Amino acid sequence: MSRKIQILEEAMKLFAEKGYHAASMQEIAERSGIAKASIYNYFKSKEEMAISIFRYHYEVLFKKISEIGEDEDLTPRERFIRQLTVQLQEFNRHKHFVRMRMGEQALRVNEELSKVVANIRSETMKWYCSQLLEIYGESHKQYVLDCATMLNGMMKEYLFYIFMDDKKLSLERIPSFMLDRLDSVMHGFKEADEPLLSFELMKSFFEEEQQPPTPFHQMLQTIADFEQFLVNQPDYSEGIERVYVSLRALREELQKKEPKKVIIEALVSLLSSYDVKGIQTYIQLLHKQISAL
């Protein structure tokens, strides 16, 4: 486990125990076994840490779900049951994240985290809808949104019973149990039944506002991918820490109202001087993106 992931894990536990606002960076640093000053080499603020927790958890989850989705030997129903089981198992592995996610303060950090959470919710509902459509077919398409909403509600309540109320429920039984209930709902619709939720009504929920990416936005995405690469490295080193510090400085410059190209170039050149295996691909991409500024 990298040092950055270790910090995120300890922060999750503390946020779940005390609440986001009551937890301090000093406490997170102490639990992580590092000096408070060192924690800012990885996260510039507690807000950034909270955002990183959500992104990290769901990136891992959706990657595993996508891998199951590529298994052509499974029927749509078998595939979805296995994906839901993995979702529950991942939540079980990260109980502290679930408790943090369900805490009343979790969504009240800042606007950026609210957008991250809203995007996760939208992507989850898209996934539910696509899988239900595969299982029940086009003839039931008009009811898919309502059934996805019911499924999401059931999932949340079972999670609450398990992780907040400490009820002993079988994680492996829940997915097939929920789908059996949805069978009854889907097949119980009459031809004259109108859905509560239509795709037209929910259009704004599923469609993100599209804006052409600027070179600055593209560089910020490259930095995010770069950091994810570092997170996945099995061994933490002093070189990786220096890369983190430089990436943080680069992001801060790019997020300014008027970023200075000369500073951006200097920071990317500094990254080029670090002898860390596997980072040159990202640095070359950053150099290419600088040329478009």
Task: Briefly characterize the structure.
With 293 residues, the chain is mostly helical. It has 14 helices and no strands.
Mean of residue pLDDT values: 86
- Secondary-structure element sequence? HHHHHHHHHHHHHH
Give the terminus-to-terminus CA distance.
36 Å
Strand content: under 5%
How many distinct helices?
14
Q: Give me the count of strands.
A: 0
What profile does the largest beta sheet have?
Answer: none
SSE class:
mainly alpha
Identify low-pLDDT runs: none
Helicity range: 55-70%
Principal-axis shape: globular
**Rg (C-alpha, Å):** 22 Å
Overview of the molecule:
This protein is an all-alpha fold. The chain is built from 14 helices and no strands. It has helices at residues 3-18, 25-32, 36-39, 46-69, 76-93, 95-102, 111-136, 144-164, 174-188, 203-206, 215-231, 238-254, 261-272, 280-290. The two termini are 36 Å apart. The mean pLDDT is 86.
